[in-house]
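quick one: zinc ion bound model?
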Amino acid sequence: MQRERKDFAAYRESEEYKRLKEIRRKKRRKQVLIARTCVFGGAVLIILVVALLIRALVFDHKQLETAGKPVNILKEETYLVIEKKPDIDVQLLTPNEYSRPGIATETIENIVVHYTANPGTTAQQNRNFFESLKDTHETSVSSHFVVGLEGEIIQCIPTTERAYASNQRNNNTVSIECCHMDETGKFNDSTYNSVVELCAWLCCKFNLQAEDVIRHYDVTGKSCPKYFVDYPEEWDKFIQDVADYIKENAVEMTKEERDAYYGEGQSEQETATEENSEKNEQ
Ligand SMILES: [Zn+2]
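yep, here:
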């Protein structure tokens, strides 16, 4: 026992012992270094993961915010426009409370088709009847457009103003009165074709679909336009004809091109604006 202790003391003084001690010391330092590196690396990794998670959450939130809205990164939003404006004879009514009250329309949501219920009368006669109401005060009625037996289109009221045609929907619709030859209320081909053309053009102007063209019947249940109430399948065909007309004749425009087109092509709107501002000043 005593001898072993002695040997050990001697051994501790030996070069071999010192060498091994130095190796152990280096090994420990190396281990500490590895441990520190691991802790530091782990911390960096955790920070990175947290940062990525936050970024992902924020990004998801942004995506949620824009969900449902059209994303036009690649393609600018375009509008369908029929460049060939229908031949419209603008004969605006004298502003009066019986047929042209001068109240502004809101955003146009539907085009409403009517029939005059007065067989054989012309577009001009119907327009003049609306005009006469300013003196006779007989009733309150009018329409933005009247389409005649020869397909002629007369505009009585700017679409920026309300007409007295579609009851509770006068505020946000454009109305078209249609002439007809007999009691059936069926439109002849000339009238029919002009109404299709006018409806298609107005749909594009107000950014509506063919399905947004409705009957007076759809507003109040009144039998107007009679033929299309009696024969709903004929109405479906009419809507299809409007859709086909748009498909065949409309071109795509950017918002700027569209605004420029309607800004230039709408003299009756300019007249209406002037008259409205005069009216507002009074
Ligand atoms: Zn009607």
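Residues 267-282 have pLDDT under 50 and may be disordered.
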